[in-house]
Amino acid sequence: LRKDDAPVVPEPVSTADGRAIEVAANVGSGAEVPPASDRGADGIGLFRSEFLFLDRESPPDEEEQYEAVVAALEAFPDDRIVVRTLDVGGDKQVPYLDLPEEPNPFLGRRGIRLSLEEHADLFETQLRALLRAAAHGRDGNGGGGSEGDGASDDDRDDRGGLAVMFPMVSRVEEVEAALDRVESVAADLAAEGVDHAVPELGAMVETPAASYLADALAARLDFLSVGTNDLAGYVMAADRESDAVADYHDPLHPAVLRAIDRTTAGAEGTDAWVGMCGEMAGDPELTELSVGFGLDELSMSAVTIPAVKERVREVDSAEARELAEAVLRCETRAEVRDVLGLDE
Ligand code: PEP
Ligand code: MG
């Protein structure tokens, strides 16, 4: 795979027929933000906020979280930063949180489940930090005692600013509960006279349930983002960590591709945009297919951004849709790979 030698394209790209596709970066630490910008990222499509909670003895406070998000916003003054709320449990353990012992943590209290249940306190602190950060660089409501903004970021385009997404969603009720928490945090901040704004709000689609419910989720949210790493694991019932079933854990299995298509189809007719932030998004050999599924944004590790941008510019979106339709008719991975012109 040729990933490293494509030239950096600093500006946003469109397909050959003019469909804008945002190509953003996944970041798993503050140190990954500047290289993402150097590689031409159109913002951050997945800011894995759990890095702020790892390798320490207690959770970060509101101020520390606020500052980390503001630093990312300042690195991308014209672009969107999508922060994922705390996603622990399963493969992501944080000792001081005393997560419940479960026989199968991948099917247990992960992601949004923990935020709404055991760790409502952490969720509230995180939402306070995020709503305050969302006001950063916008024409604020003044006051609030914030420090100077510095950058000339008062003129964001539509893509700009903070967005927040919830991980491991499997029920509409979770989204409704999370939106209630956002509303109550906003009311608290307003009562305290603290500068804040409500960011764009979205959900990750990384369970089959979320894919089946994409229409209902999209009707309540500003965006969805497909996490193919977990989605492939849950659709195929194959642990993403296990070598023994690595062959099952592949987004090119027809069932996973149909789950992705069901997600974009579900959001059609709503105002929600749909992105993808799992590994599949960063594979330039799959860019045409991703465009064909109707995704608006692809977010990936920074190293693959130039190659994916290069590929987006070559794609014709009508041909890409035909390719996606051909792939959706396939019944085996071998057929999928054949349609995509990939070796077995
Ligand atoms: C995913 O599941 O595809 C995803 C992007 O999230 P993570 O890899 O952090 O679980
Ligand atoms: Mg995931």
Automatic annotation (TrEMBL):
Residues 136-159 are annotated as: Disordered. Its cofactor is Mg(2+). Mg(2+) binds at residues 206, 230. GO terms for molecular function: kinase activity; metal ion binding. Phosphoenolpyruvate binds at residues 48, 84, 229-230, 240. Signal peptide: none annotated. This is Phosphoenolpyruvate-protein phosphotransferase. It comes from Halorubrum glutamatedens. The chain holds residues 246 to 589 of 589 of the full protein.
